[in-house]
Amino acid sequence: MKNAKMPTSDSYQDYLIEALKDKIHAAAYLTAHLEDEENEPGLLELALSNVFESLGKPNMSADDAKLHLEKLDALLSGEGSATIYALASWLKVLGLNLTVAVDAGETGEEEDSTNVAELAEVGNV
Predict the structure, then answer these.
(1) In a 10 Å sphere around its CB, with 0-12 CB exposed, 13-18 middle and 19+ buried, how is residue 93 labelled?
(2) Entry pTM
(3) Residue whose C-alpha is closest to residue 87's, from 32, 96, 65
(4) How far apart are CA 47 and CA 34, in angstroms?
(5) Residue 90 CA to chain centroid, in angstroms?
(6) Domain ranges across the chain
(7) How many C-beta neighbours within 10 Å does residue 30 have?
(8) Cβ–Cβ under 8 Å, residues 120 and 28
(9) Banded model confidence at residue 6, pLDDT cuts 50, 70, 90
(10) Alpha carbons 49 and 68: distance in angstroms, whole number
(11) Residue 60: DSSP 8-state
């Protein structure tokens, strides 16, 4: 064990971006941010930016990526129902859908990660 080396680790951001390349993981990540009762300003924008970096940026030209991020800034500063539709459209480009589900607390059912993943997967048809 004299020559054993400690494994080097990537930064959390690198790990997160790699993990978010899985669309089911990305959908669950955004769902967690949207359902957070202690929503802090800027965290949703950061989460959306992280998902964009994983799913959108590698598949777009630099100009298209810049325009897509500018669209995110504009839609997050908007008001009213048009903002929801704009967010749904923005997510669609990344291969994700904005979905509404029944709150597990309302139905008395226990929610587990499999149900969330299945819901996210159904939304990606």
Answers:
(1) middle
(2) 0.70
(3) 96
(4) 10
(5) 11
(6) 16-98+108-122
(7) 21
(8) yes
(9) low
(10) 10
(11) S
| CA 91 to the chain's CA centroid | 9
Place of tokens 């955004």: 30
Taking only the tens place, the pLDDT of each residue in 66-100 is 999 999 999 888 888 888 889 999 999 999 999 88
Residues in the chain: 125
- The two tokens of residue 64 are 């298209």
Q: What is the sign, positive or negative, of the torsion defined by CA atoms of 41, 42, 48, 54? A: negative
Question: What residues have CB less than 8 Å from 29, skipping those under 6 apart?
Answer: 20, 47, 50, 51
Show the tokens assigned to 36.
């957070």
The Cα–Cα gap between 54 and 38 comes to 25
HSE (CB half, 13 Å, CA atoms) of 113?
Answer: 5
Q: Which residue in 28, 95, 18, 82 sits closest to 56, CA to CA?
A: 95
Long-range pairs of 109-117 with CB within 8 A, sequence gap ≥ 24: 113/28, 116/27, 116/28, 116/31, 117/24, 117/27, 117/28
